[in-house]
DNA sequence: TTTCGTAATGACAACGTTATCTAATCCCGA
DNA sequence: TCGGGATTAGATAACGTTGTCATTACGAAA
């Protein structure tokens, strides 16, 4: 900037004004400065600018999600990017891989880089450690899962309601042996979805058989194993509710392996690519991850603008998409 | 930092030394400083640190890909993250959406934030505009597509060879009417894959019928339309080579719509989720996007360390995965 | 005892920018 | 002709940190 000022024959501050499009510089000088800037390959340094500026905004967000290559979370990422882009905000993205330690490391890494906000999926049992960061002015928004022990803005799917819809849909076909396959209790969404399953079963006055409940499906292969075990047991289910997209994929494989894809009903939570091209096409309760991302970003901007806003939890509703696998009747 | 120094009763410089784990500070003072730091909720400011430090490294990369929620590119992202994580580097990720203007905007946005390297998929016709950035010390690595008019490190799949393998595989089943469905010439990978298709056809002394070549499939729905047109034409193909994952998905739908999925052979370029669960399972030439990402990040680090390295193009090989759809014989 | 080398600490300037304040210039009306 | 307000430009300090150099203290060698 000093060099540009020298070449244009003006003061440093004038160059700063031109670069920041501040009013009060004559057109003559503006063009002189711009010519000098391009001649010298000048590129504005946002990090230095931020250091000095009074609002101390870096126009940067940090995003901490389960896995950047997971289709659900990458769609959330995409939604955030759409909103951030309009405001000139760049987004750091990182995967936690269900590791509490990594969650904390990432928060520190982003905080040290002075991001304006962190949008994250909590993994650590308890988020009270973030109070420290918030005191420093960092904005925190949670997506997909609500934080625990920490009051903050949050965007989630109506997990319990969606799971209830899915289960009720299977019960409405006349199924009584409806299995639940999901992840374990440490994952809040898995819990919520189990709750919805419970509610639907209770509403239909159908008792839950513990042997039809599997809560150990952490990955697609694990889900396949769990479903195979259910199918091979003495009293197999006639319908399955798979509580997450990777689990649904695993369930599809298991059903195919046993040749039961046309006889055992299946409804999955969260849509996935090619679900409509499978045979049978898979009925799902679809989330709207892109919308979740957009809302989270909007919440972050709103809070940056007014830090004293009351915290709010936004619920994005899910919708049942009937495709075939969920409409298979019992006893076929 | 000033406050920490005051509380610990030492100079600012000593705090800096402790924070950076520089040698030559007595254990006594180290613990005093650390106590003061945690008492004051002190958080090191990497942006200010970077401004002053002589190497001017921000430990930050920028990633510019087609779409963060595209499964191929999000896997590339993941690979980059794996390598970057080990070195404490945070990654900005953004989607260009095939927009040349946005590519340039993103380069500027990252450059202004003083990233150490940009890893990108080129969209603009011509990358010579980047010379400006490189003069400023920015490291540039290309992934998936080679840059044009600009010599730089690059990691690509063996597009032509993979496409040749795919096409030759179909020809080996006895097919003669092998269609090509791909994106247009502005996309270098689409070009390379068409080249491979041409080579395989030439090797088998099979002439290419222009009416079986479609190069207008930009999206999944477009691919479906193109394939339907091919199937409905007077002289339909008995086999299809789909030159990209989204196109393959579109082709699967089209074949299903016409009930031809078991009679027309299909090989796709690039694997996709659930390809093995479809009926028939889809034969593909699989790329290794995660490995592409890892290599790109490694190249970036190598060049940061030694800017005078000769530029290199790394080719990651693809592999044919036989699953069924590609092994359908002609005339069924 | 003096001198010297070494280790630990601190003072100060500087990184590239912007906020604040002051100075110069101009235009207009009285 | 002059005053006064508006407009434009510049000088200077500061943002939070680290590089450089100077200073201090201490023990060992002469």
Number of domains of chain A: 3
Order of strands in the sheet with most strands of chain A: 2-1-3-4-5-11
Structural class category of chain A: alpha/beta
Low-confidence stretches of chain A: none
Q: Give the distance, in angstroms, between the N- and C-terminal Cα atoms of chain A.
A: 77 Å
Radius of gyration of chain A, taken over Cα atoms and rounded to an integer in Å: 26 Å
Write the CATH fold name of the largest domain in chain A. Rossmann fold
Q: Mind telling me which CATH architecture of the largest domain in chain A this is?
A: 3-Layer(aba) Sandwich
Number of strands of chain A: 12
CATH H-level superfamily title of the largest domain in chain A: Response regulator
Shape of chain A: elongated
What is the chains' assembly state? homodimer
How many H/I helical runs of chain A?
12
What would you say this structure looks like, in words?
2 copies of one chain form a homodimer. Chain A has 332 residues and is α/β, with parallel strands linked by helices. The first copy, chain A, folds into 3 domains: 2-44, Orthogonal Bundle (434 Repressor (Amino-terminal Domain)); 60-157 and 292-316, Response regulator (Rossmann fold, 3-Layer(aba) Sandwich); 159-288 and 320-327, Response regulator (Rossmann fold, 3-Layer(aba) Sandwich). Chain A contains 12 helices and 12 strands. Chain A has helices spanning 2-8, 12-19, 27-39, 46-52, 71-86, 100-112, 131-135, 159-172, 188-203, 220-232, 245-257, 289-305; strands at 60-65, 90-95, 117-120, 139-143, 153-157, 178-181, 213-214, 239-242, 265-269, 283-286, 313-316, 319-321. In chain A, the strands form 2 sheets. A 6-stranded parallel sheet of chain A has the order 2-1-3-4-5-11, with helices on both faces. In chain A, helix 9 (188-203) links the parallel strand 6 (178-181) and strand 7. Chain A is elongated. At the A-B interface, helix 4, helix 5, strand 2, helix 6 and helix 7 of A face helix 4, helix 5, strand 2, helix 6 and helix 7 of B. Chain A binds a DNA duplex (30 and 30 nucleotides) through helix 2 and helix 4.
């Amino acid at each position: 900037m000093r060099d540009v000022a020298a070449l244009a024959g003006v003061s440093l501050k004038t160059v700063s004004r031109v670069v920041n499009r501040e009013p009060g510089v004559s057109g003559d000088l503006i063009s002189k400065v711009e010519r000098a800037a391009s001649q010298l390959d000048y590129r504005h340094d946002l990090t230095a600018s931020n250091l000095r500026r009074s609002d101390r905004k870096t126009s940067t967000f940090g995003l901490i999600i389960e896995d950047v290559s997971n289709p659900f979370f990458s769609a959330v990422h995409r939604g955030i990017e759409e909103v951030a882009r309009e405001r000139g905000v760049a987004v750091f993205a990182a995967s936690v891989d269900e590791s509490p330690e990594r969650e904390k490391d990432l928060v520190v890494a982003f905080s040290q880089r002075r991001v304006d906000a962190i949008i994250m999926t909590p993994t650590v049992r308890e988020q009270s450690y973030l109070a420290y960061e918030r005191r420093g002015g960092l904005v925190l928004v949670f997506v997909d899962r609500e934080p625990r022990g920490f009051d903050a803005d949050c965007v989630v799917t109506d997990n319990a309601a969606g799971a209830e819809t899915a289960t009720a849909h299977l019960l409405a076909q006349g199924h009584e042996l409806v299995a639940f396959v999901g992840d374990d209790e440490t994952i809040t969404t898995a819990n919520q979805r189990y709750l919805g399953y419970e509610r639907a079963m209770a509403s239909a006055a159908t008792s839950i058989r513990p042997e039809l409940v599997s809560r150990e499906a952490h990955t697609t292969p694990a889900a396949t194993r769990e479903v195979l075990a259910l199918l091979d047991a003495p009293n197999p289910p006639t319908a399955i509710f798979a509580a997450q997209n990777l689990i649904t994929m695993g369930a599809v494989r298991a059903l195919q392996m046993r040749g039961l894809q046309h006889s055992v009903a299946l409804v999955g939570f969260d849509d996935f690519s090619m679900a409509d091209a499978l045979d049978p096409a898979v009925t799902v309760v679809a989330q709207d991850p892109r919308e979740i991302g957009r809302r989270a970003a909007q919440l972050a901007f709103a809070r940056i603008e007014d830090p004293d806003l009351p915290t709010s939890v936004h619920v994005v509703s899910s919708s049942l998409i009937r495709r075939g696998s969920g409409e298979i009747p019992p006893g076929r």
